[in-house]
């Protein structure tokens, strides 16, 4: 693993945003431009590329503080970004997800309370008829179970990240598993302001098929089926 580009600030940021990417040339500029108000307030923006063969890295460079290269795999990329970043707080954001306004201040307030980790409610872009219902059900399920998904921009203190050993090195359900581990440290801060995420996953395979597939995969994961087995049956467009 090596660092491709870096723009070091003179002060240590309190929060780092980690964005794992692979072939996100179509979305990376919009993603990082949306994060620019946080960067202006001293938040560190770290992009972790998993070996893109498009212009992702070149496009990310002017809009990020650091652009790193990692072994491909979302968990591995997020771990690399988390370990190489400098903030005392970490938030992991998909390239097709937009944080709410003043997300840094919302996270700061949440982590100064009893919780050492948390997530936002999510809203899916209106790309299909059931988008609102799917988003509502994701938020409701998360509040009831204390389990977050990567679409909800999981955040945590660096201490919590290190205590649980980062994301588990597995190809699928890494968000579910780290939630289970973090939940042993504290209940999550479930923030009502919403992140907005792309509908492309649901549009690609159809919303009903995607919903059924994800529920089936999660059920089998909870029953002990290996994430490597499950990963062979499902390919996330991201």
From TrEMBL:
Residues 16-122 form the Glycosyltransferase 2-like domain. It is found in: Cell membrane. GO terms for cellular component: plasma membrane. Pfam families: Glycos_transf_2. InterPro entries: Glyco_trans_2-like (IPR001173), Nucleotide-diphossugar_trans (IPR029044), Trfase_2_rSAM/seldom_assoc (IPR026461). One of its GO terms (molecular function) is glycosyltransferase activity. It comes from Chromohalobacter israelensis (strain ATCC BAA-138 / DSM 3043 / CIP 106854 / NCIMB 13768 / 1H11) (Chromohalobacter salexigens). It comes from the Bacteria. This is Glycosyl transferase, family 2. Keywords: Cell membrane, Glycosyltransferase, Membrane, Transferase.
